Amino acid sequence: MLNFHIITLFPELINTYCSVSIIGRGISHGEITVKTYNPRDFCSDKYRKVDDTPYGGGAGMVLKPEPFFAAFESIQRASQSPVILTSPQGKPFKQDLAWSLTEETDITILCGHYEGFDERICSLATMEVSTGDYVLTGGELPALTIIDAVGRLVPGVIGKSISLAHETFVDGLLEGPQYTKPPLFREMEVPEILRSGDHQKINQWRREQALKRTFALRPDLLAEANLSDKDRKYLADLSRQNKSNQD
Ligand SMILES: C[S@@+](CC[C@H](N)C(=O)[O-])C[C@H]1O[C@@H](n2cnc3c(N)ncnc32)[C@H](O)[C@@H]1O
After folding, report:
1. Cβ-based neighbours of 174, under 8 Å, separated by 6 or more
2. Using CA positions, which residue lies closest to atom 6 of ligand 1?
């Protein structure tokens, strides 16, 4: 079982998302747990103040260390388990990090807000993680992104593990196109090969489509992708074809 501990000023955002769909089912089946801890509940002052003005001046409010430390120290977690601080300055969150986090029993995530954390709160974290090169109002969407991306990889959360086997980023490639019924919709036809019943040919077609799509949309991924000699030959042909179309 994987336990997520989320320190957030807005627990309702986390709880609402996690109550439905695949993550909701993973929680109700006991494969994952998601607990929230609101620093406001750990304030010792009458006004339950979680933020204050920045030293040295400047706009906005900074999150105070005392309630975040108190919320963190209330968590029952494995002592060496990862503590993720959400930050636009962090390491980019990628699928390989999601996979490695499935090996943990506890993952703690700190969600910032306003102008962000007092720097001393960062000392609680074992890593700082960014979900992309943009600035959000708070760490709740990044925390949910991490819960969702990691939670769905926990065995049993997604019914058939086969559905993880061909998806985007497995082998470092984007997934190719997918179709369902009907075979013909508004003059757009499902490729004949997918209806052929020949699984060897279908698998070959899917691999080529994944290579083609990655080549067109994310060629940067190919340098790190897990490619066979056959894949490399297909890509070389694709590249030649591309060049001759440009000339
Ligand atoms: C408005 S941001 C603070 C930005 C901070 N002042 C800076 O310039 O780096 C408030 C909080 O949202 C979260 N956040 C915003 N953008 C994020 C991103 N791209 N990835 C992860 N967390 C993010 C962090 O928790 C951050 O503390």
Report:
1. 168, 210, 213, 214, 217, 218, 221
2. 115
